[in-house]
Amino acid sequence: MLEFFSASVRMVNSQRAIEECLEVALGADPADCDLVVIHASLGHPLKALVDQARKQCPRARVVASSCCGVVGREGVSESMKDVAVMAVRGAELAVAHVDGIYGHNSYERSVELATELKRKNPAINMIYFLASGIDIANDLCLAGIESVFGPEVTVFGATSSDNMRGVVSYQAVDGEVFEHAAFAVGFADPTLEVDTQATHGFVAVGEPMVVTRSEGHKILELDGKPAWTEYTGRLGLPETATPGDTIPVGALAEELSPELAQEYGNAHLLKVVTKRDADGAMHYATTCPVGTRLWLTVRDEERIFKDLDRTMEAMLVRAKGRKPVAVFHADCLARGRFLFNRVMKDELVSRMQYPLSTGGAPPPWLGMYGFGEFARLGGANTYHNYTTALYAIYRR
């Protein structure tokens, strides 16, 4: 039976950061551990963190990713020196990874990943998935995993990020660090189930842009014009702007069906642009066929908080009085209250942690600020951007 433990710190020394996390999470015997999941801001080299974790937990599989801040039981932190871990004890899990995953081969690499995961443990009933946050078609990743496990297996997780510049992000598996990899942790404990939900609180505005030419996840033209030129022009940015300039203000919205909109609490699903080519092509987060209509959006602070409260109410109803044994969490930096040009996340985090707490103490909790989130919508595994996505694991 799987057991979960977590901790987070803000510390300059990478070795000491992992030592403290594992000591706080696991107590006097950190070696008694089968899996360590690490999220770390770019101020820490992943290699040093992973090596120290493997030293302290010699039998454990160790996976890690870069991010732009963490959330743990201790709260939220968005410095360049953040580290958070989720440690797991128990044999009912498996780990697999692939390198060289890009937009053009996302489906094939994900099939390869899922096939290896299922070979290691056919009893897997939920999958924590983390992929590169730049130049990847996330809908094809989901399709590839589902081709092996079926759509009934819930896929939850995130995509790695940098400091929101959209330049490079990192993933690590055991002793290796990658820039374009994906890893998956399959959980096979039959006593566990996961409940997922995502919410954003942004509002679509103006007239939509129409995709008039595309190739897979690359948007080549919008409204018959070079995509990057039209996109930045609509945002009021110069054509020389970088993806990092557009990420905070440039969320693109796709219209949902009325049925999905009612469940989601919003009429649109958001997507991010994390890369552009020299010829002006935009790398979208999923495939984007010709004819797709894309709206610009604005963040609505009041709605962000109301929609999060709505999400927590829905999750509590589905929990039927149970408290989670662990929570994984993926979030976007473009959320929270602004105060003197600082984004304040503490209130958002407290509103999600308090309802899931027992005696005022949150369950083991691992959250990251990344480039994207995976959570179910309409009963289907779905990729989101600009959301708070919660993955609460319950004992049946």
Structure notes:
With 396 residues, the chain is of the alpha+beta class. The protein has two domains: 3-198 and 305-395, no CATH class; 202-299, no CATH class. 25% of the residues lie in helices and 39% in strands. It has helices at residues 14-26, 46-56, 106-120, 138-149, 227-235, 243-246, 258-264, 301-319, 346-353, and strands spanning 3-10, 35-41, 61-67, 70-72, 75-77, 82-89, 93-98, 126-131, 154-159, 171-173, 176-178, 182-187, 192-199, 202-215, 218-222, 225-226, 252-255, 268-271, 273-276, 282-284, 293-299, 326-331, 337-339, 342-344, 365-369, 372-377, 380-384, 388-395. The strands form five sheets. Strands 14, 15, 16, 17, 18, 19, 20 and 21 form an eight-stranded antiparallel beta sheet that branches. The chain has a six-stranded mixed beta sheet with strand order 1-6-2-3-10-11, covered by helices on one side. Helix 1 packs across helix 2 and helix 3 packs parallel to helix 4 (138-149).
